[in-house]
């Protein structure tokens, strides 16, 4: 078994390898002077069961290309089986057409990964579970919910309400609520423009309770910041948030740092930005 990584999330790849008492496979994954991605494996992989750890994080197109070229190099070097470990699957929010003449980008990315020669994909908390079906190769779709629930259970918090920050996340939040033994509240949100979030209504009782917002990803942070404001207005004693993927796009860290939230907890599917701890953003590992 060998583990290689691109440049998207080297700390996570190292951490996975260390759990397995392995060194990361040696490879050059860089850029030629003309801007093209350069990959060269520096180890023999013939007949090996190879895992490539590569989240599709910013710059997502570049990291995708690294992944595709690494898969191709492994195939051509006679690896026996290649598994693409994609802890965060970018392009997942473009899994359907929302208006005419748009691509279905998540499907195209799935085609590219399979065409490059991956035998299997291992990923976590896909934004839309249907993306699993975009692949004609086996997909292991892992969830961070049990890990995050363990973390909360160890805090022995009482009087907790789990909050889904939008209608699409209710199933996910309900499972999490069952795991930590809490009640449930649901926020209905709307997006008047791309990347802008507004709370429309909230269902459930949060007054006098500790609210834990549970989401799959944090991008601009707008969904969480707006949800937290509403929860405080409705009488929540405290608000924390947790999500599998911390993308923290644009000024998300600043927005969350200035929000009424006491803490934001994400996993390490994506590396944390340097300024995260000052904004009360913490990380647990899925390694
Ligand atoms: C939405 O469907 C997702 O579950 C997240 O709530 C959303 O992606 C968060 O985006 P943002 O942080 O930009 O509001």
UniProtKB/TrEMBL annotation:
Which cellular components does GO assign to this protein? cytoplasm; ribose phosphate diphosphokinase complex
Binding-site list for D-ribose 5-phosphate: 191, 215
Q: Which reaction does it catalyse?
A: D-ribose 5-phosphate + ATP = 5-phospho-alpha-D-ribose 1-diphosphate + AMP + H(+)
Which Pfam families does the record match to this protein? Pribosyl_synth, Pribosyltran_N
Q: Name one GO biological process term.
A: purine nucleotide biosynthetic process
Q: Any idea which positions bind ATP? A: 34-36
Pathway listed for it?
Metabolic intermediate biosynthesis; 5-phospho-alpha-D-ribose 1-diphosphate biosynthesis; 5-phospho-alpha-D-ribose 1-diphosphate from D-ribose 5-phosphate (route I): step 1/1
List required co-factors.
Mg(2+)
Q: Which residues bind Mg(2+)?
A: 127, 166
Q: What are the EC numbers?
A: 2.7.6.1
The record's section on CDD domains has: PRTases_typeI (cd06223)
Q: Gene3D superfamilies per the record?
A: 3.40.50.2020
Please indicate if the UniProt record lists Nucleus as a keyword. Answer: no
Which keywords describe this protein according to UniProt? ATP-binding, Cytoplasm, Kinase, Magnesium, Metal-binding, Nucleotide biosynthesis, Nucleotide-binding, Transferase
Q: Ribose-phosphate pyrophosphokinase N-terminal domain: from which residue to which, for each copy? A: 1-117
**Statement: the UniProt record of this protein carries the keyword Magnesium:** yes
Spell out the PANTHER family in the cross-references: RIBOSE-PHOSPHATE DIPHOSPHOKINASE FAMILY MEMBER (PTHR10210), RIBOSE-PHOSPHATE PYROPHOSPHOKINASE 1, CHLOROPLASTIC (PTHR10210:SF41)
* Protein's recorded name: Ribose-phosphate pyrophosphokinase
